[in-house]
Amino acid sequence: MAQNDPALWIFGYGSLIWNPGFPYVDRVIGELPGYARSFCMRSIHHRGTVEDPGLVLALDPHPGTRCSGVAFGVAEAEAESTLDALRERELVSSAYLEKMLPLELSDGRRVKAVTYVVDPDHVQYCGGLDLEEQARIIATAIGGRGPNCEYLFNTASHLRELGLADADLDWLATRVAELV
């Protein structure tokens, strides 16, 4: 492995895209087969509270689908501290499961990446909410990292900038902007 070759890959499909919070040596568009991005997890820390939960994106297994996002390559020297920081951030309530999953990068490489997917058996899982209900929740919830709508707007706009527009997120961003 060359000095700047990534020792660890991280897949970002939500806030990691626009706020990774760790140093990286490579950043490439990637696709994760078999999973769909959706607001299927109640947020009781970062974008909501226990009393008034918000919603955050998670990956739900859906055979035949693909989720586009960003693969971040992390250098060997930063790998351990990056994983520690990500675990503190993403596993705060154990609603996510940390998995090493195969990614297909836009430059043709295939890598295994640390990916946080929802635990469908966790109390915070809420898959299947209709878009209007998601919009109402996102429009009002606020958590430790700020308003839930900010999370949605940032994610949707960064996906569009990368050419990875997500129809549900675009609809939600428009609807939530009307509600706030």
Summarize the topology:
Layout: E1 8-12, H1 15-18, E2 26-43, E3 54-74, H2 76-90, E4 96-105, E5 110-118, H3 131-140, E6 142-143, E7 146-147, H4 148-161, H5 167-179
Antiparallel strand pairs: 1-3, 2-3, 2-4, 4-5, 6-7
Helix pairs in contact: 3-5, 4-5
What does this structure look like?
GO terms for molecular function: glutathione specific gamma-glutamylcyclotransferase activity; transferase activity. This is glutathione-specific gamma-glutamylcyclotransferase. It is an enzyme of class 4 (lyase). InterPro entries: ChaC (IPR006840), GGCT-like (IPR013024), GGCT-like_sf (IPR036568). One of its GO terms (biological process) is glutathione catabolic process. The chain is α+β, with helices and mostly antiparallel strands and 180 residues long. The chain has a single domain, classed as Hypothetical upf0131 protein ytfp, CATH 3.10.490. 31% of the residues lie in helices and 37% in strands. The strands form 2 sheets. The protein has a 5-stranded antiparallel β-sheet with strand order 1-3-2-4-5. Strands 6-7 form a two-stranded antiparallel sheet. Helix 3 crosses helix 5. The chain is globular and about 45 Å long. The chain starts with 7 loop residues before the first strand and ends with a helix.
